[in-house]
Amino acid sequence: MLEIERKFLVKTKAFKSEAFSQSEIKQGYLNSSPERAVRIRIKKKIGYLTIKGKSDESGTTRFEWEKEIDKEEAEALLKLCEPGVISKIRYEVEAGEHVYEVDEFFDENDGLVLAEIELNTSDEKFIKPDWLGEEVTGDVRYYNSQLSKNPFTLWKEN
């Protein structure tokens, strides 16, 4: 139940032509504290309840537990979430033996595009496509739980 991932900004939209899948995601947080985030998500007409623990010092590893729930339950729980529900499209892109999840954000996080890659170990080697930009692993501003409270459009550099 440990999630090991690295996160990057995306510098071009070239990933879209490489994507093998895309899906709309709507998610909110019942609790968005750094110690434990409790998320409700709807993706592909399926609901999910996810609990994430605090990240380690490098920001790459943290506890994650997820359970599928009915879409209707997820919709009801979204109404109880903290302000700042996130809307995004997730693209899945293969790169060697890995899959990048590339999120294009909308609404208050419009203009932000992030790529995440899940790894088996924190030092695992992986391919970095040309569209991948600066690494932001461990920068809490880019955690979805923080983007719901402090949206990208309020602090992005012009």
TrEMBL record:
Active site: Y29 (proton acceptor)
Source species of the chain: Leeuwenhoekiella polynyae
Record-linked InterPro entries: CYTH-like_dom_sf, CYTH_domain, NeuTTM/CthTTM-like
Official protein name in the record: CYTH domain-containing protein
Coiled coil regions, renumbered to chain: none
UniProt superkingdom: Bacteria
Domain CYTH: 1-149
Pfam families: CYTH (PF01928)
